[in-house]
Amino acid sequence: MTQLANLTERRAIIDACLAMNRLGVNQGASGNLSMRIADGFLVTPTSLPYDEMTPEDIVAMGFDGTYVGARRPSSEWRFHRDILRARADVDVVLHAHPTFATALAVHGHGIPSFHYMVALAGGDSIRCAPYATFGTQELSDHALAALDGRLACLLANHGMIVLGKSVKAALALAVEVETLARQYLYAQQLGEPVILPPAEIARVAEKMRRMKYGQPIDDNDAPEDTARPRA
Ligand code: 13P
User: Fold this and answer.
1) pLDDT tens digits for 35-61?
2) Which residues carry out catalysis?
3) Is 0.90 topped by the overall pTM?
4) Cα(177)–Cα(111) distance, rounded to whole angstroms?
């Protein structure tokens, strides 16, 4: 029997899906995840509970929409394909139905800059893409537009999409976006919270870039503007 290609990547996808549910950013068999490979991308199969998923179940797809494997690809393969094709800056697309982010999205609300951590998603807001039926080209087009210049968006009456260079980065950002949605919903109990102006979010984004915020510190490449390790 021939060795299954991209076994490490297939295992990483399953681990990330299990983590997604464990961390509370998704539940059941909803959500899906894809990862760029040399000649296309890997994507989770449709409608299969993550705890039953094996590496063989992960589907290998080309950017032409053809696939190889015993399972059918996620019903959302179009937006995975379109995002990976359009965004050379990311290698992983994560889609989930987190409770708090979805609670905002069913009202068509994105997340404004009520908290500086919104800048982690790449801009001064996390947009909410207009509603379209799941799995359609229309939904993919809306998602791609809402993700312009961003690493995350909400999908009206549906859920969220998060992008990353790695599975670990996408998962961490998914947890952050869901936390922001929860904080924003709680904050709204006292009325609309204070919104930070775009200039402050730009300052935060620049500081995050300079500090390599959220990335492991390499002592040999200590970013400016941070505490120094004692010699
Ligand atoms: P799939 O099981 O087809 O990936 O669909 C789940 C989902 O979340 C659709 O948006």
Assistant:
1) 999 999 999 999 999 999 999 999 999
2) 76
3) yes
4) 9
Q: Are 13 and 58 in contact (CB under 8 A)?
A: yes
Ligand 1 center to 134 CA (angstroms): 8
Q: Is 39 helix (H, G, I), strand (E, B) or coil?
A: coil
Query: How far from each other are the two terminal CA atoms of the chain, in whole angstroms?
Result: 55
Planar angle of CA 134, 124, 141, nearest 5 degrees: 25
Using most ligand atoms within 8 A of CB, pick from 46, 59, 81, 99 the residue to mutate for ligand 1: 46
CA 47 – ligand 1 centroid, Å: 6
Residue 172's pLDDT is what?
Answer: 96
**Burial group, residue 83, by CB count within 10 angstroms (0-12, 13-18, 19+):** buried
Domains of the chain by residue range:
7-211
Is the CATH number 3.20.20.70 carried by domain 7-211? no
157 alpha carbon – ligand 1 mean position (Å): 14
Protein residues with CB under 6 Å of any ligand 1 atom: 29-32, 44, 46-47, 74-76, 95, 134
pLDDT tens digits, one per residue of 120-154: 999 999 999 999 999 999 999 999 999 999 999 99
CA 222 – CA 231 distance, rounded (Å): 13
Q: Compute CA distances 7 → 36, 108, 173, whole Å.
A: 13, 39, 25
Is the distance from CB of 148 to CB of 160 less than 8 angstroms?
no
